[in-house]
Design goal:
Blueprint (H helix, E strand, L loop, with lengths): L11 H15 L4 E5 L13 E7 L9 H6 L3 E6 L5 E5 L5 E7 L3 H15 L1 H15 L6 H7 L1 H14 L8 E2 L19 H16 L5 E5 L13 E6 L10 H6 L3 E6 L5 E6 L4 E6 L4 H15 L1 H15 L6 H7 L1 H12 L1
Parallel strand pairs: 2-5, 8-11
Antiparallel strand pairs: 1-2, 3-4, 4-5, 6-9, 7-8, 9-10, 10-11
């Protein structure tokens, strides 16, 4: 098949508003956005209106599907292994309603791509040119055409993420540490690191029990074969990371101490363990950082070429003198974002 692209049609925003009203009548208060190429003025597109609905749990279809079916929508795609994504077709064949969970990194990805193309004519034209070049080919499936655009999409998104990063906000240090003022020491992968994590996991589970929503080994020591600082990064999800009384005293009794708070950045808390060196990152459920950290880890585990690219960057940077270890981490941002974007594509 060929992909038929249409020049931008000024009626597309109105079609979106019509469908938005239909969905809101069925699901009052629903969180909706116009995404995809028809949401970008001046961009050629398949004449399909893409809506994005953010739900607490897309798998809980009873909470939204019957109401949408009554409005003329029907479920056509379920992707339980990809962000619990659902697609519903609208009453008209040119309407796609995409459902993602709250806190899913795909939500920000779609909005950032849309807003960047709206504001940057050069990248909008780059994307349009790529679409036109690909649309003229024969495609077995529309999905194959979409996959072929991945390289230019990632190119555009990388610029967008670096130009509009999520700023952590003010950091409140509970305990201070002296300046680093030294290179960063990396060690070759140590097969004992998973056992180090397992010991920390047992300690945390004994301290918190049913308060744990999720517990994961993240960071470089969680990736077999990857050189790393001998530092175990632990991701802990609790019902409310801002409610420190619910978990910090128990973790302190287990041997950790509270290092910092980032109240305006996902209510992140960092606790430290010393034997071994541990960073315990605490977040609440439906947090984008959870999605991003796991996507990064799993991508490095599954794709040797990405793991090698990341290790080269780490080794190149590690030999410099860094006032703070965080400065070294910040210097890796470009390659980290690029790998996360690949993982999310």
């Amino acid at each position: 098949m060929n992909i038929e692209l249409a020049e931008y049609d000024v009626s597309w925003p109105g079609l979106y508003e019509r469908e938005r009203a239909r969905v809101l009548a069925a699901l009052p208060g629903a969180e909706l956005e116009h995404v995809g190429s028809t949401s970008v003025p001046g961009l050629c597109a398949k004449p399909v209106i893409d809506l994005m609905l953010v739900a607490d749990d897309p798998r809980d279809e009873v909470s939204y599907v019957p109401a949408l079916e009554a409005a003329g929508y029907r479920v056509t795609v379920r992707e339980d292994d990809w962000h619990d994504h659902r697609i519903l077709k609208g009453p008209d064949t040119n309407i796609n309603l995409h459902v993602f969970p709250r806190g899913c990194a795909q939500v920000r990805r779609h909005l950032l791509f849309r807003d960047w193309l709206r504001d940057n004519a050069e990248d909008r034209e780059l994307y349009a040119s790529a679409k036109r070049a690909l649309a003229g080919r024969e495609w077995e499936r529309v999905q194959d055409y979409a996959a072929a655009k991945t390289e230019v999409v990632l190119d555009v998104l990388e610029r967008a993420y670096l130009a509009r990063p999520v700023e952590p906000g003010e950091v409140e240090f509970v305990t201070e540490t002296p300046p680093h003022n030294a290179p960063v020491v990396l060690e070759d992968y140590n097969p004992a690191w998973p056992q180090w994590y397992a010991a920390e996991e047992a300690k945390i589970r004994a301290a918190l029990g049913e308060q744990i929503v999720r517990l994961e080994h993240v960071g470089s020591t969680s990736v077999p074969g990857l050189a790393a600082k001998p530092l175990i990064d632990v991701l802990l999800i609790v019902p409310d990371s801002a409610d420190e009384d619910a978990y910090v005293p128990a973790l302190v009794a287990a041997g950790y101490y509270l290092r910092l708070r980032e109240r305006t950045w996902h209510e992140h808390r960092l606790l430290k363990g010393t034997e071994p060196n541990v960073n315990l990152h605490v977040y609440s459920p439906r947090c984008e950082e959870l999605d991003r950290m796991l996507a990064f880890r799993d991508r490095l585990r599954a794709y040797p070429e990405d793991r090698e690219e990341y290790e080269r960057t780490k080794r190149e940077l590690a030999g410099r003198t860094w006032k703070r270890v965080q400065d070294y981490a910040d210097a890796k941002t470009r390659v980290v974002e690029r790998i996360i974007l690949r993982a999310l594509s």
